[in-house]
Automatic annotation (TrEMBL):
Record's protein name: Phosphate regulon sensor protein PhoR
Domain Histidine kinase: 209-427
E.C. number(s) listed in UniProt: 2.7.13.3
Keywords: ATP-binding, Cell membrane, Kinase, Membrane, Nucleotide-binding, Phosphate transport, Phosphoprotein, Transferase, Transmembrane, Transmembrane helix, Transport, Two-component regulatory system
Record function comment: Member of the two-component regulatory system PhoR/PhoB involved in the phosphate regulon genes expression. PhoR may function as a membrane-associated protein kinase that phosphorylates PhoB in response to environmental signals.
Subcellular localization, as worded in the UniProt entry: Cell membrane
Species for this entry: Pigmentiphaga soli
Pfam families on file: HATPase_c, HisKA, PhoR
Domain of life: Bacteria
MF annotations from Gene Ontology: kinase activity
Gene that produces this protein: phoR
Reaction(s) catalysed by this chain's protein: ATP + protein L-histidine = ADP + protein N-phospho-L-histidine
């Protein structure tokens, strides 16, 4: 349509010149036509200069009243605006993809066919020790030189992941997998499985420990049963038979104690915490002290300092298990003639603290962090002789966590030990707990 408009303008000039020809002569007509064409050309050049200046900054709207350029510029400007919107949308999508990749809990590295690094997220930088933009374009195999990974990358096909020690931290275990995508592109996914591996090791150790703890009493029971079965009844003296039966009874009781503690520990780990209710801790502690005195049979000097009006909110059976474990352990492992003191007092911050202090042999510092591990024993032989299962402190720790409490252990070789449960003010019944 632009050329039709220009043609009409030229025809209009020609018509006006032709009308002036009979009056002023042909020379005047040509001069008038040439002047009109010149003015039209100058006007078009001026409009073109305006368009040329606009072309330096296409984000601005085109110049208004650009003559024959109006329709063309309008279409061009609409096209540019559409392209800008589409480009902004694409940039937003790309930025969203990058943000999503950064938020992944796993590491992500994009590579070309030759394993040159294009991009990686924050987790991958932590897992593999990469740095961007310094490592962009670097060959990943030059930065992760573990032989297992180099052989894995050379396969060309990666149907299964690979377990790999992190180049950034040898203590961290990674599961890595290469994936081919797009046109000759590669993607490396990394996942930190250190905790999973530790849990698996803990499970294996737990199964091994349970098997070991039950094997000894089962062996004793089987041996005595075999002896009693194979020997004639009159071949065993009544005193010896009684001794055999007593030892079998002790070993059966030991297995029962292990199974009971295992069931308790399993229930604490798998069941939700019960609704808290007021627990009469002074009475519960008094009952526990009575049991400890019966177990001690006068071998220890027992004392207690209990606040009679201090109760907590919690599960009575769980708390009874925890306070009993700490006191019974003190009786079992404190040498004869030493003292054991039980205290239950309010703390300055409004909380409460249950503590069992003995004057026994004490525990070396390097054992303290592991005392709450299942079946961990400072002295295995002494623990079995005393009747311990190796699970009491593990149970106590779980009870403490379910009651928002802390298990505190302090010990010094030759001076004794203190095992304490510290409850926060929110767990203390009465005015402090209600506020």
């Amino acid at each position: 349509m632009v050329w039709i408009r220009n043609l009409l303008v030229v025809l209009l000039l020609a018509g006006l010149s032709a009308l002036g020809g009979p009056v002023a002569g042909p020379h005047f007509s040509w001069a008038l036509f040439s002047l009109g064409l010149g003015l039209l050309l100058c006007w078009q050049l001026w409009q073109f200069s305006r368009v040329e200046r606009w072309s330096h900054d296409l984000r601005r709207p085109p110049p208004a009243s650009a003559g024959i350029w109006d329709e063309t510029l309008a279409r061009l400007y609409r096209h540019l605006r559409t392209q800008e919107r589409q480009l902004a949308q694409l940039e937003g999508n790309v930025q969203g993809f990058f943000s999503a990749a950064q938020a992944l809990p796993d590491g992500l590295v994009t590579l070309d066919q030759e394993f040159h690094i294009d991009w990686c997220n924050r987790i991958a930088r932590q897992h593999l020790g990469l740095r961007l933009p310094a490592d962009r374009g670097q060959n990943l195999l030059n930065l992760v030189r573990t032989p297992e990974f180099v052989r894995y990358a050379a396969q060309g096909d990666w149907p299964a992941p690979l377990l790999l020690r992190s180049p950034a931290s040898f203590e961290r275990l990674l599961m890595v997998q290469l994936i081919a995508y797009g046109q000759r592109q590669r993607m490396l996914l990394t996942r930190d499985v250190t905790q999973i591996e530790r849990l698996e090791n803990t499970r294996r150790d737990f199964v091994a420990n349970v098997s070991h703890e039950l094997r000894t009493p089962l062996t004793v029971l089987a041996g005595f049963l075999e002896t009693l079965r194979d020997l004639p009844e009159d071949a065993i003296a009544p005193e010896q038979r009684h001794q055999y039966l007593s030892m079998m009874h002790d070993q059966a009781g030991r297995m029962q104690a292990i199974v009971a503690d295992l069931l308790t520990l399993s229930a604490l780990e798998s069941s939700p915490a019960a609704d808290p209710q007021p627990v009469d801790m002074p009475q519960m502690i008094a009952n526990t002290v009575s049991q400890a005195e019966a177990l001690s049979a006068g071998r220890h000097r027992m004392s207690s300092d209990v606040d009679p009006g201090l109760d907590v909110l919690g599960a009575p059976t769980e708390l009874a298990s925890a306070i009993s474990n700490l006191l019974i352990n003190a009786v079992r492992y404190t040498p004869d003639g030493q003292s054991i003191h039980v205290s239950w007092r309010r703390e300055p911050d409004g909380g409460a603290r249950y503590a069992v202090t003995d004057t026994g042999a004490g525990i070396a510092a390097h054992h303290l962090p592991r005392l709450t591990e299942r079946f961990y024993r400072v002295d295995r032989g002494r623990s079995r002789e005393s009747g311990g299962t190796g699970l009491g402190l593990a149970i106590t720790k779980h009870v403490a966590m379910r009651h928002d409490a802390e298990l505190e252990i302090a010990s010094e070789v030759g001076k004794g030990s203190t095992f304490a449960l510290r409850f926060p003010p929110s767990r203390v019944a009465g005015q402090a707990g209600e506020n």
